[in-house]
Amino acid sequence: MKAAVLNEQPGELIIENLTIDKPAPGEVLIQVVGAGLCHSDLHFMEGIFRTTLPMVMGHESAGIVQAVGEGVTYVKPGDHVVACLSIFCGQCHQCLSGHPYRCANPKATSRDKGAPSRLTRSDGSPVDQMARLGGFAEEMLVHQNGIVKVTEDMPLDKACLIGCGVTTGFGAAVRTAKVEVGSTVCVIGAGGIGLAAIQGARVAGANKIVVVDLSTSKLETAGIMGATHFVNASEVDDVVAAVREITGGGVDYSFEAIGRAQTVRQAFDMLNVGGTATVIGMVPSKDVVELRGIDFLQEKKIQGSMMGSNQFRTDIPRMIDMYLNGRLLLDEMVSKTIQLEEINEGYELMKAGEVARTVVTF
Ligand SMILES: NC(=O)c1ccc[n+]([C@@H]2O[C@H](COP(=O)([O-])OP(=O)(O)OC[C@H]3O[C@@H](n4cnc5c(N)ncnc54)[C@H](O)[C@@H]3O)[C@@H](O)[C@H]2O)c1
Ligand SMILES: [Zn+2]
Ligand SMILES: [Zn+2]
């Protein structure tokens, strides 16, 4: 089967023909229908974060079950599923205390060291899977606890977006930060994640939702998602001052959806007294974020959000229902649909900052 492989860091993706194993006990083989381009893959392609190589990239995919391994009762061939990298064991302290997205026992849902690789090249050498999914491929072989069954009414080329970007952004607003009715919000960065955070804030009942981005087209899309006020960071000298002016003193909730120390600092500095900044972006591990200590006296808070603090087996079917009822917008988030062979061009468009989400269809 065809898959997009990262062989060096930094590096582009190469389309290769790989062999995919049969499902082992607990595993599910999926025919991929749609795969979204998330910025996290780009961080690895640019070498900002290190990983094992070679690796099939992609972690935002949806498809149809083809075969299941021994002991799999959750799905059967023909079922429609969305994959999520928050693969849970269901038995560790994190899983059992209501935080399955922080599962502390990934071994329980992975193949044993020394077992045959799920993916191999024709010479038998192993190929890894991004986030244990490897979604930029015609087929995915994953643990059953990394998928959720969804209704067949849901188009899979839209459902894939919920696998990472929408779960992460929407969840950051409603689950991690718990945005309150009538509050003021600012989202910095209006890519797939930021646009979903804006939607989460809208659904949660926020009053003012300010969006900050460098691109006019992104700001326009953010308006469709529910943003009420707009700051083009390339046109103002001081983003924090602009947001403070719009909100009359700062926001109750800010979200950083880019992954830069400088914008994390902005997210904290634009808070009103008692406000909370939530960092969603993946900030390079070598970068340090500096904050003014005195701000803590005003009960300002800063926190991270991992995959929107999701419980995806229940969250994703709900979000799909919201899409089918017109409450969650996904069609408007897709700027472009491409073929797997065009994946590097898709990432070039993301770097240029002109597309919301690009989706590979198979
Ligand atoms: N926390 C998690 O679990 C999690 C999950 C998925 C993705 N992420 C991370 O979230 C971040 C966003 O991902 P994405 O797919 O939405 O990326 P994206 O590239 O689609 O969007 C980023 C946006 O930020 C804007 N931007 C860039 N620099 C800016 C600046 N200085 N000021 C204002 N706007 C600026 C760009 O124009 C773009 O619209 C990435 O770091 C990604 O790795 C984190
Ligand atoms: Zn992602
Ligand atoms: Zn666990």
Explain what you see.
The protein is of the alpha/beta class and 362 residues long. It has two domains: 2-164 and 309-361, Quinone Oxidoreductase, Chain A, domain 1; 178-304, NAD(P)-binding Rossmann-like Domain (Rossmann fold, 3-Layer(aba) Sandwich). Helices cover 27% and strands 26% of the residues. It has nine helices and 19 strands. It has helices at 39-45, 93-96, 156-176, 192-204, 216-225, 239-247, 261-269, 312-324, 343-352, and strands spanning 2-6, 13-17, 19-20, 27-36, 55-56, 61-68, 80-83, 119-120, 126-129, 139-143, 147-150, 184-188, 208-213, 229-232, 251-256, 271-279, 301-304, 334-338, 357-361. Strands 4, 6, 7, 10, 11, 18 and 19 form a seven-stranded mixed β-sheet that branches. The protein has a six-stranded mixed β-sheet with strand order 2-1-5-9-8-3, with no helix packed on it. Strands 14-13-12-15-16-17 form a six-stranded parallel β-sheet, with helices on both faces. Helix 3 (156-176) packs across helix 4 and helix 3 packs across helix 8. It starts with a strand and ends with a strand. The model has no long low-confidence stretch (mean pLDDT 98). Nicotinamide-adenine-dinucleotide binds next to helix 1, helix 3, helix 4 and strand 13. One zinc ion binds at residues 38, 40, 59-60, 164-165.
Instruction: Tell me the structural class.
Output: alpha/beta
Low-confidence stretches: none
Helices, by number, come to 9
- The CATH homologous superfamily of the largest domain is termed Medium-chain alcohol dehydrogenases, catalytic domain
Give the ordered list of helices and strands. EEEEHEEEHEEEEHEHEHEHEHEEHEHE
The level-1 CATH class of the largest domain:
Alpha Beta
CATH architect. name of the largest domain: Alpha-Beta Complex
Q: Please summarize the sheet with the most strands.
A: 7 strands, mixed
What is the tally of beta strands? 19
Radius of gyration: 20 Å
Average pLDDT, all residues: 98
Shape: globular
What is the third-level CATH name, the topology of the largest domain?
Quinone Oxidoreductase, Chain A, domain 1
What count of domains describes the coordinates?
2
Distance between the termini: 12 Å
